[in-house]
């Protein structure tokens, strides 16, 4: 039996619960419940129920856009078979091998591979590719990882890099650095991560999935792993609150807690379509929101449809504020969670606010959202809901509250699943501590031998609502900086690297609630300068720049510092405030310099060395090459490399921080032209994600000529190349 929906344009038009097979709920109180057991359960009892929905294809039939549990089961079997062929499956000598994944892959691929690894008896380890090579090396050694999925073909030699895409080259270069740092005795097998088209080939042919009634039997033929309650099922890592990220082990009791957490709240998840493409799949929140609650509640994940690049290769679609909202509209998602930075982008666009208003819930996760922005969205009818959690704990806030909190959107309802302790601090603040209980268990940084009592200090400071049983996060007990893009920076190691420079007495990083970090530098007395003298300032920054570069190399990519956000102070006039023990008082220092910090962020938005003066000839006509050269200089400066003008910038190392910086300079570039009233879209970097496309947009604006859509023959050419690449299908695995 197959399950179909009437053809229509969006999920809302197609979605009616009476058209679905009835979702058979698993027994979530089963003491031995694990994600891989739920895969078997759904393949048997919910084979035609959707696991995921994709945006409509051009040759649209609704069944082409649905990935059911039957298809997931079939794909899990194929991955497990390939894993065995590659020699990375469990053996008597190594019954629980750790298999890492380090990739910016589509969440659909990522989650399917993780479930397949669990079902095969391996321990998947989700590693953020944003880590430095040194941090990745540390994680691989600490976890005992023996096999690692990467985004390039390990069989290709260094001299064959011309056959790689830019994204594959970046992945290869990063892994080359890691392999240099790994000791010789640590043998690591590299596996090429499968693409969406290799896992789900029918998406390429735009055909319906052929139901396979034998999938439950085929799956049962793969030996199910027997796990103890303390044995790790999966590994994640912290964001780097110490010198290196910490290993975090998730055992059956932990994951069962995570899967059950939605059941302790009044919001009904069954049948809801979540925007799973928003959050990084390697983050705990992304994995939980896009995969685990599917297993336990019957909600369905919305994903991007896989795309072909100009070279005919299947390329991961890099999520951004533009294409995410486009997919949410196309799918008709009902629940989504965003970073504060993304919501800030949407708040300035009425059509985006309208799209958010149509969602049942709009979660905010990973960092603080400006009160002004949040209030604006609430007034626009957006149902904001604070989502607060930690990798070691899982969700701490209710997931989700029965009713939206309206003007109290900055607060959250504590999950009834948790047992907590609130330690009083000054100014009526409370430090949140989580205690283990029969309902919930925290993850651990060591492999447990028994499920003993736990006490986990979040190091978060919260305050209670004056009249309601709600709480709000206001800061950290430690010095961790939470950025508006949900990333976290531990400033200590980077500050120590900078302070080691003989010209720097102290370094103090800032950036809470901002899109990127900045730093206050206090020069040594012998290097004190007149901070009103621009030449002296530039000379000082040049002098200490090697230490900034060293700190940037040490820290994760989201923590890097730029010249524009370096604030040098004069220690003879306003030294950094210190405690009686001589340590810098971070809170007092940030309060003392808060106006200057705000000013430096404002100035950063305005800084640009570029001009359009040479973009016009004597007759006033636009000189296209001059515009392209100007855009190329801006992009190359921020990416610190020579970028391919035709390729997607986000496959060449560009991230949201780079995008913000490049857009700021494009704004100034346009303002330097004859028409300074031109509005540059907030999502311009995502709508036109290459030097060529950005240049074409600027040229079209300056010459008042509309941009043309990609020609159909170009799309056909990509399709032809795709056919050549994937026919015949060959699975290649090599050992490095």
UniProtKB/TrEMBL annotation:
Source taxon at top rank: Eukaryota
Entries under Pfam families matching the protein: AMP-binding, AMP-binding_C_3
Gene3D superfamilies, A to Z: N-terminal domain of ligase-like
Keyword field: Phosphopantetheine, Phosphoprotein
Transmembrane segments: none
Ranges for domain Carrier: 621-702
InterPro entries assigned to the protein according to its UniProt record, in alphabetical order: ACP-like_sf, Adenylate-forming_Reductase, AMP-dep_synth/lig_dom, ANL_N_sf, PP-bd_ACP
Protein name: Carrier domain-containing protein
Organism of provenance: Melampsora larici-populina (strain 98AG31 / pathotype 3-4-7) (Poplar leaf rust fungus)
């Amino acid at each position: 039996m197959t399950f179909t929906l009437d053809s229509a344009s969006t999920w809302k038009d197609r979605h009616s619960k009476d058209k679905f097979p009835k979702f058979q709920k698993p027994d979530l109180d089963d003491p031995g419940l694990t994600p891989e057991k739920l895969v078997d359960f759904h393949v048997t009892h919910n084979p035609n129920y959707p696991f995921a929905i994709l945006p409509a294809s051009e040759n649209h039939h609704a069944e082409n856009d649905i990935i059911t549990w039957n298809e997931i089961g079939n794909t899990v079997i194929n991955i497990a078979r390939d894993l065995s062929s590659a020699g990375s499956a469990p053996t008597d000598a190594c019954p629980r091998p750790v298999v890492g994944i380090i990739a910016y892959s589509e969440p659909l691929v990522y989650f399917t591979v993780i479930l397949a690894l669990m079902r095969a008896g391996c321990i998947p380890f989700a590693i953020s590719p944003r880590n430095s090579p040194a941090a990745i090396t540390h994680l691989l050694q600490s976890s005992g990882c023996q096999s690692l999925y990467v985004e390039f073909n390990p069989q290709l030699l260094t001299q064959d890099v011309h056959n790689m895409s830019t994204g594959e080259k970046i992945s290869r270069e990063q892994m080359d650095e890691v392999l240099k740092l790994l000791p010789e005795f640590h043998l690591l097998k590299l596996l090429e991560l499968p693409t969406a088209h290799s896992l789900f080939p029918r998406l390429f042919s735009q055909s319906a999935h052929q139901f396979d009634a034998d999938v439950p039997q085929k799956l049962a033929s793969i030996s199910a792993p027997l796990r103890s309650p303390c044995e790790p099922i999966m590994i994640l890592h912290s964001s780097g609150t110490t010198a290196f990220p910490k290993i975090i082990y998730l055992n059956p009791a932990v994951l069962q807690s995570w899967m059950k957490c939605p059941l302790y709240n009044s919001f009904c998840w069954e049948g809801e379509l979540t925007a799973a493409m928003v959050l990084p799949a390697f983050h705990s929140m992304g994995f939980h929101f896009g995969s685990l609650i599917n297993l336990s509640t019957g909600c369905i994940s919305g994903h991007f449809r896989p795309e072909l690049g100009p070279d005919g290769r299947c390329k991961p679609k890099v999520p951004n504020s533009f294409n995410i909202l486009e997919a949410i509209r196309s799918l008709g998602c009902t629940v989504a969670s965003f970073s504060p930075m993304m919501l800030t982008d949407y708040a300035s666009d009425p059509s985006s606010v309208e799209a958010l208003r149509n969602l049942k819930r709009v979660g905010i996760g990973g960092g603080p959202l400006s009160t002004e922005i949040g209030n604006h969205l609430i007034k626009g009818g957006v149902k904001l809901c604070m989502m607060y959690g930690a990798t070691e704990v899982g969700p701490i806030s209710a997931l989700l509250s029965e009713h939206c909190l309206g003007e109290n959107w900055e607060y959250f309802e504590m999950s009834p699943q948790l047992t907590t302790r609130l330690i009083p601090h000054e100014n009526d603040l409370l430090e949140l501590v989580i205690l283990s209980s029969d309902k919930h268990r925290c993850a651990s940084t060591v492999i447990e031998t028994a499920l003993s009592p736990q006490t986990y200090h979040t190091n978060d400071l919260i305050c209670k609502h004056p009249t309601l049983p709600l709480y709000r996060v206001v800061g950290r007990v430690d010095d961790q900086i939470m950025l508006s893009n949900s990333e976290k920076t531990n400033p200590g190691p980077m500050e120590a690297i900078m302070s080691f420079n003989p010209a720097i007495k102290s370094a103090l990083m800032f950036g809470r609630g901002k899109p990127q970090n900045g730093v206050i530098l206090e020069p040594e007395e012998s290097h004190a300068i007149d901070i009103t003298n621009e030449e002296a300032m530039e000379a000082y920054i040049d002098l200490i720049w090697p230490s900034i570069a060293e700190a940037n190399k040490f820290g994760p990519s989201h923590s890097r510092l730029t010249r524009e956000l370096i604030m040098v102070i004069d220690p003879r006039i306003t030294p950094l405030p210190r405690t009686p023990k001589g340590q810098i008082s971070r809170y007092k220092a940030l309060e003392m310099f808060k106006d200057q910090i705000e000013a430096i962020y404002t100035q950063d938005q305005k800084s640009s060395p570029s001009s359009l003066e040479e973009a016009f000839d004597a007759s006033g006509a636009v000189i296209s090459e001059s515009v392209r050269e100007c855009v190329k200089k801006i992009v190359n400066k921020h990416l610190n490399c020579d970028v391919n003008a035709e390729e997607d910038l986000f496959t060449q190392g560009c991230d949201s921080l780079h995008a913000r910086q490049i857009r700021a300079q494009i704004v100034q570039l346009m303002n330097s032209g004859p028409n300074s009233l031109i509005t540059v879209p907030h999502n311009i970097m995502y709508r036109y994600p290459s030097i060529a496309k950005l240049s074409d947009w600027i040229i079209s604006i300056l010459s008042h000529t509309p941009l043309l859509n990609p020609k159909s023959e170009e799309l056909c050419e990509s399709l032809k190349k795709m056919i050549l690449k994937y026919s015949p299908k060959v699975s290649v695995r090599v050992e490095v």
